[in-house]
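## Example record

The block below lists the input lines for one assembly entry, exactly as stored, with component labels intact.
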Amino acid sequence: MAVVTVDQLSKRYEGSNELAVKDVVFTVDDGEFMVLLGPSGCGKSSVLRMIAGLEPITAGTVSIDGRVMNPVPAKDRDIAMVFQSYALYPHMDVYTNLAFGLRRRGVAREEIDRRVRGVAEKLGLTPFLGRKPHALSGGQRQRVALGRAIVRDPKVFLFDEPLSNLDAALRVTTRNELIKQQHELGTTTIYVTHDQVEAMTMGDRICIMNRGEVIQIGRPLEVYRRPADTFVARFLGNPPMNLLSGRLEGAGERPRLRFAEVAFELSGWSPAVLRSHLGREVTVGVRPEDLWEGPPPGLQSGMVRLPVHVITVEPLGAETLLLLLIGGGDEELIARVGRDTALKNGDLASIALDPSAVHLFDPATSKAITRAD
Amino acid sequence: MTLWIAHLRRTPLLLFIVLYTIATGGPFVWVASMSVRTTPEIFANPYALPVHLHWNKFMDAWTTSNYGTYFWNSTIVVVTAVAAVTVIGAMAAHCLARYRFRGRRTVRFLILSGLVVPPQLLILSLFQILLDYRLYNSLTGLIIVYVATQLAMTVYILEGFFAQIPQDLFDAARMDGYSDFEIFWRITLPIGLAAIFTTVTLNFIILWNEFLYAVVLLTDDTKRTLPLGIMHFMGGHQLDVGMIATGLMIAILPVILLYAFFSETMIKGMTAGAVR
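Predicted structure tokens for the full assembly:
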């Protein structure tokens, strides 16, 4: 059992006045696959390295199964890490790379051999045991790095962007392999990435970070559907969520949202919440996939049509991206529509929007306005 | 026509290379030739190639002229100094390349400043220090001086190479449970072998031919190193040109052999630090 708890974790690097990591708090449950997601420089690797014991902690604590790890050296934390560069020892063959950590811990030779060959068999590395890393492909090196972590049988796995050096096709197969291994082993895993596809497909939960802070933690779909702020809203999703200026107006029971020269009632929102923002500017978020050229069956009623000017049509094969200008204004909108669109560059058209799919954010704080009280 | 022009463009470069080779290699070939000729033969025709090869001259030089003693002294001093400076320099380079500690820049500056200080400035101070510590006129004292004077170059070359070893390797070794020294021994040294070999070769060549410190810090004939021995021999046998040439060949041969076998590795090691 391994529960990892990070409490008010902070990090200031030497020579810097700014905190690279600020009061990070999260818990990874036993056997859970937690993904730390964020742009480059957001502090996610620093958090991982502090958990690993490779980086001194400025403030806060890291605990594993209730035991505070701050004073414990990296080698005694029972953690195995897979690095972005794989960190394979170039002067050792694959067998020795896999066995290196076990030898240091005084494991018996026969046991080392049993474990190494077992892991090699599991990962398809048996034919390569005598080879040095330079004679392996990128995917094979990645498997050796993973094997080196698995053979240690640790309480926690840490992954620091292990797929970023692989090509797109290999990334997909290796991703699935990693998920499969983690499920089979059931080891608590913390995985750092800047790739939202990896985060959405691999994590039980994702922890989104930006500028050293945790912005939101939740299940992938939950975070995707209910982003906590405009940063999360734009970071998840490709193309990113459209953010436009709007205003809540109207007296009476049901305030209306006005933007893009249309006004409509929002469904699924607490009237009290809407009334509390009445008369104020809001940021309206609309995902590209919630805009329709022609609404699908079952969603005909209640759809709002937005007048648009088509700037660019980008056929991607399976779908089409439309870059649009709303009405006569200069706000741009990206819509993701079906592969068979009749629209062309320069067309004046209307795009259907499902009002229940609209997100609202406070422009002053960028935080999401929650639907319920 | 194009081929002619290409040949024509290369001619000045080829001419330069030929002239340079003659200028630098010529004296060596001449000394090598004289080393197997007798002195009368040399005086009769200084530049002729040997007709009979008098290999016995090497044995004579070794046994009758104390060359054996000088060679042995040089071997002890140079091998010990090179081993010591390699170990100390590698450890220092590893620390400077890998660790961030208070005073690191000062330590680095102090060590590398040895590269710019000429030996002539140091010789008086070293003379006095060795006298004070009763190490003057001793092989031990000379070894210590050689280690100190070659440390800067060794650290300079090795630090550049070690700094290129990815930090992830050291982090992985730390997580595998290895101590700092074990990481140095098992990771840095094996990976840095090419650069270490370069410094070993360079230090050997420089110290084998080193004269200034040896002539000031050693006075006993039984403690002389080869460069000193040759100078002494030349002083006593000014007219025995053949024997002088033989003695020079004995002195040069180990260095030539070392360079001949390991020059490629040395060049790889020197340029490895420059390429990312």
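The two ends of chain A are 38 Å apart (CA to CA). Chain A has a mean pLDDT of 91.
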